Amino acid sequence: MGKLGMKELATALDGNDAPSTYDAEERVIIALDFGTTFSGIAYCFPNKANSKVATVVNWPGMDGESHNAPKIPTILHYNGNKMTWGASVDHLADSIVGVKLLLDPSQEKPLYLPTGNVKTDLKKLPKPPVMVAADFIAAIYQYALKEISAQVPESYMKLCQKQFVLSVPAIWSDAAKNTTLQAAKIAGMFPVTLIKEPEAAAMHTLHDLDFSLRVGDAFVICDAGGGTVDLISYEVEAIAPKLKLKELVPGTAGMAGSLGLNKRFEEAVKNLIGEEEVFRIKKTKAWFRANTQFDREIKPAFRGKPTEEYFVNFPMADLEDDPSNGLESNCWRMTGNDVKNIFAPLITDILRLINEQVNEVLIKRPGKGVTGIFLVGGFGGSQYLKSCVEKAQPKIQILQPSDAWSAIVKGAALSKLPSTAMITSTVATKHYGVEARSIYDNELDYGEKTTIDPQGKTRCHTFTWYITIGDDLQRDAEIKFPFVRWLDIDFADNELIFESVLYESKDRAAPRHRSKGESIGTNCSVKADLRGIDRSLFKMRTDTSGKPYYDVYYDLVVRLESALMSFSTEVNGKTMGSVEASYRD
Questions:
Q1: Is the pLDDT of residue 241 over 90?
Q2: pTM of the predicted model as reported, rounded to 2 decimal places
Q3: What structural domains does the chain harbor?
């Protein structure tokens, strides 16, 4: 993934990474669903009477059936210093699509999707993906701001303090979530917070249900979007005075989004007419017409019946007829089986993910069952997907909100209205901890490399996991990671800048040693600057040779937020110094 230098990033953030100089009572909440294939914006004015979450529906370049749509295509085109975006991009232009996926290139693609080269895709970009994403976010945000401003008097809008919230896939690494956050800040959205996409969908869907919820009800939220499919399960903790939900089991996810259908459609066309012909017609309107037909007409209309028939047109493509495969006069007659074959592996993957999530909930709540499964997101609106889930889960009600496509962006805005609904706790999907020199244990640490500390004690490197997979984590709770550092008596001032590495692991059992772990990786490096603290808080000691040194005790404090952790440091229970977290790709 392309990287920004620290100087370049600092310049990009200049003026955008500082909080507002005032704290206005009037607010406007602006939520962005930055999607792989489509993006949208929702907003609300929480101080206005009977304020409701609304979406921006009028976008530049949109016309016909797409007019008054809550989403705009996530697509950009650069021509020198000029950038066009969304529906305004010329369909024959060499455009950038799927930039969101390049913010987290570490995600494994399933075998049923055509292989691609991430490095090649990155080289094609005119700038690092975080800056390309920032350009798109800035364009959609600035345009939406004008649309929102038209809904209220100009004087009122000037009074409002803006609060931004950005949805991100739950499947993403913390590094990718942080990169997305930086892109939003570069684009001018500040202050901005993150929310997991399925959590946002749950906030909207369960809050707006048109039938009664009961305490103890459990729901699986399946957010099937363009790039990813995220699943999280919730239990209703309270109904009044506001809806309270808690996560039940670790969320699961996969790269089975609807963009995969488009890629498999392209592969099907290659099998029909050959790769060279596809390369040729991609330079003409023929490919745009055919791909648009599949994406906007066939995908949403398909019901899974072999008797269904669809006609895909390649106007003026001059393709050779192949009647035995349904290709005549630049028109491909697709049968229901043709379309079903395109859908098949993605449907199978989604059904597997749903089945795994349901089984985990049943284990967590023996005898209580699952009340319902919600299908949200663009792919979640597919009637064929719903019918497949109904067959696979006949004992559970499958619900498909009419506004499934905009559920995420609406829920993201709703999350900033704590008087209506809230998530009380989440479930850890990874182990999080630190590695340090611990007192050697003959039984637990046998065979590990050892060192001797200043007190003459034998130590070896072990992991301490403060968060483990499956832990119930209270929202906005704080977890303290205690550290001790040894400093010479004549230490230099800059030696009080301590860098600690926060590790993560997906191993079933949290490993004690690096040699025993299969999936241990760096989550982030946290730099704590304690140069300004009172030196009297240090504890002077002497080593085995009588040489004095200092023990410096401090806590790294991790605050658990919706999608990304935040950090601070405490000495003797008081917040001191500054903390900077650096994520690595």
A1: no
A2: 0.87
A3: 6-197 (3.30.420.40), 209-400 (3.30.420.40), 431-583 (no CATH)
